């Protein structure tokens, strides 16, 4: 078998690639996991905001939530009163039914059905109104938080700021040293107080 120059060079290059491959992975495998992770994340700055704590201490959030809950209670009370009126109308119809003619009975039933449909429509409209207000509040809160975090992060240089909620988060562990919640609450409350 004759060895050509290109064949010998290919074998030498193959051996060199195998040696480099071995050295690269042998060096990384011998490093402790913590050291490899520290090396790969040393440039990434992370922080988080505890959403449960934010909701409990952010004045604007608490005020707006109380307003929405009060509005929901008013709507429920109004709907309950309307339902009671409808029930009274139905009870009156039941009492008068034996003395009504067939035409009067059908007209009264039609009127009751119309009132029931109006009540259901009113209930749905109120529910939609409340949902729209809650969504608008969530959107404005998200925008306010985003705007604040942009200013807050101008000198902090975090690449990522996560939200964290106990029990409902994809984050399994959060180092308390990276918790910026208190700064965010204080800053947002100061902004809200200035409005």
Describe what is shown at a glance:
The protein has 195 residues and is mainly alpha-helical.
Question: What's the arrangement of secondary structure elements?
Answer:
Layout: H1 5-30, H2 33-41, E1 46-50, H3 51-57, H4 59-96, H5 102-152, E2 160-164, H6 181-193
Parallel strand pairs: 1-2
Strand order in the largest sheet:
1-2
Q: What is the CATH third-level topology name of the largest domain?
A: Protein Binding, DinI Protein, Chain A
| First-last Cα distance | 89 Å
Order of helices and strands: HHEHHHEH
Percent helix among the residues?
A: over 70%
Low-confidence stretches: none
CATH superfamily of the largest domain: Skp domain
User: According to CATH, what is the class of the largest domain?
Assistant: Alpha Beta
Total domains: 2
Gyration radius, to the nearest Å?
A: 34 Å
InterPro entries: Chaperone_Skp (IPR005632), Skp_dom_sf (IPR024930)
Keywords: Coiled coil, Membrane, Signal, Transmembrane, Transmembrane helix
Protein name: Periplasmic chaperone for outer membrane proteins Skp
GO cellular component, one term: cytosol
């Amino acid at each position: 078998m004759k060895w050509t120059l290109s064949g010998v060079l290919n074998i030498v290059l193959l051996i060199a690639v195998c040696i480099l491959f071995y050295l690269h992975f042998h060096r990384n495998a011998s490093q402790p996991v913590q050291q490899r992770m520290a090396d790969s994340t040393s440039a990434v700055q992370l922080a988080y905001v505890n959403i449960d704590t934010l909701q409990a201490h952010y004045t604007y959030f608490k005020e707006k939530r109380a307003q929405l809950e009060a509005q929901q209670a008013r709507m429920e009370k109004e709907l309950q009163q309307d339902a009671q009126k409808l029930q009274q109308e139905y009870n009156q119809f039941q009492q008068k039914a034996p003395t009504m003619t067939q035409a009067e009975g059908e007209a009264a039933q039609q009127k009751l059905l119309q009132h029931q449909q109006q009540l259901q429509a009113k209930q749905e409209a109120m529910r939609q109104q409340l949902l729209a207000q809650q969504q608008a509040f969530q959107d404005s809160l998200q925008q306010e938080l985003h705007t604040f975090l942009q200013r807050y992060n101008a000198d902090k240089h975090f690449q990522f700021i996560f939200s964290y909620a106990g029990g409902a988060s994809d984050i399994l562990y959060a180092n308390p040293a990276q918790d910026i919640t208190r700064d965010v609450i204080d800053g947002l409350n100061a902004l809200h107080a200035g409005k």
